[in-house]
Design a protein that fits this description.
This is Lycopene cyclase. The chain is of the alpha/beta class and about 400 residues long. Helix content is about 30%, strand content about 30%.
Length: about 400
């Protein structure tokens, strides 16, 4: 049996971030023994993906950042561009392969984290800690006992919610023979795409050079599409809307992110906690997760280093979650048009303030100043009916 102070289950963004913070503690902090259990190569490992977030100045993971920008552009359904400078913030893009390579390098140098490939079957609380029941790729049992366990594995099903939409997307990493991209500006939301009958859709362009970019088609709606529909939408967007000639598709990425007002449990036993998306890190109104994961894991690591109970804090404030619940209900009920709603917000609120709002870093008076730029009556009606709506299980994507 392996024994450690901390066991981390899962080596995605949350698991690796927590391991990295515990392996590289602040000066004077006690050494904490850590076992990181990651699934063997196969279907249990998360697919390659891209994380985007914004932060002020240099960041902890800048060595893994593919590109960053200070200008964002949103296009209204009619095509009107809305551009803004987000200084002092920077919008950053990290590809999971680069993040994992940086984590592997730093963890190997630190020597404080034991990485183990194993499939975890169960995690149970026991007196004085918890046990992880796992087995190796060869089928050999591998029990792990720890004082604290942090489980970042995806949930098998979503908790019951009043409203659940899916943010689902398909993207192409493309290369062009011509300098067709503006490397200084992200096309954050381009609403010139055909809008679905329920929810919204938009194009998304992350230029990593004059000739390279990630181009995505994204929907917020109740159900995912067949692969052929995403491909058709991307062909239409790149050819008929962006008018980009002769693109070479280098690689692709696909994802589904739940946008839900469901409550997520952050603790499942006295010494067992959930982190990452499983612990509620995904922002319900946007799908962004990476920055909240960093806040969560930073707080957990600080508590462990001080010898305190390391319950992960809520990733988003109660006020933010309440506002998101109203927005999700208004979108799902069709009371507001998603494309027009977001375009209006970006046209009337400074982008830097709006990004801080989406990160839950604004004050109440700033939230109110943003709220007056929303369709007030539909939002109030959605807010009034929320207490009477039952929470129901989501049937799945």
């Amino acid at each position: 049996m392996l024994e450690a102070d901390v066991a981390i289950v899962g080596a995605g963004a949350a698991g690796l971030s927590l391991a990295h913070r515990l392996a590289c503690p602040v000066r004077g902090a006690p050494r904490i023994s850590v076992v990181l259990l990651e699934a063997p190569p196969g279907p249990l490992r998360p697919p390659r993906r891209t994380w985007c977030f914004w932060e002020r100045g240099p960041g902890r993971y800048d060595a893994a950042v593919t590109a960053s920008w200070q200008r964002l552009r949103v296009r209204a359904p009619g095509g009107r561009p809305i551009e803004g400078d987000i200084t002092p913030l920077r919008y950053k893009m990290i590809r999971s392969d680069d993040f994992e390579a940086l984590m592997a390098h730093d963890l190997a140098l630190s020597g404080g984290v034991q990485r183990v490939e194993a499939t975890v079957e169960a995690v149970e609380g026991v007196p004085g800690g918890a046990e992880v029941y796992a087995y190796t790729a060869a089928g050999r049992p591998l029990p792990v006992r720890a004082r604290w366990v942090f489980d970042s594995r995806p949930l098998g099903s979503l908790p019951a919610a009043r409203t659940t939409l899916l943010q689902h997307f398909h993207g192409w990493f493309v290369r062009s023979d011509l300098p067709v991209f503006d490397p200084g500006t992200v096309e954050l939301m381009d609403f010139r795409t055909p809008q679905p009958p329920r929810g919204l859709s938009f194009g998304y362009v992350l230029p990593t050079g004059r000739r390279q970019a990630l181009v995505e088609y994204t929907e917020f709606s109740p159900a995912v599409l067949p692969r052929s529909a995403y491909e058709a939408a991307l062909r239409h967007y790149t050819r008929d809307i962006l008018h980009l000639p002769g693109l070479e598709i280098v690689s692709t990425e696909t994802g589904v992110i739940p946008m839900t007002d469901a409550p997520f449990a952050r603790q499942t036993a006295a010494s067992v906690f959930r982190i990452g998306a499983a612990g509620g890190a995904t922002r319900p109104s946007t799908g962004y997760t990476f920055a909240a994961v960093q806040r969560q894991t930073r707080a957990v690591a600080a508590a462990l280093c001080r010898g305190r109970r390391p319950l992960p804090p809520p990733a988003h404030s109660a006020r933010s979650r309440a506002m998101d619940a109203v927005l999700l209900r208004a979108l799902d009920s069709g009371r507001i048009g998603g494309a027009a709603f977001f375009a209006r917000l970006f046209s009337r609120v400074p982008m830097e303030r709006l990004l801080r709002f989406l990160d839950g870093c604004t004050h109440l008076h700033e939230d109110l100043s943003i709220g007056v730029h929303t369709p007030v009556l539909p939002m109030l009606r959605s807010a009034a009916e929320l207490p009477y709506l039952p929470r129901r299980p989501f049937p799945g994507p």
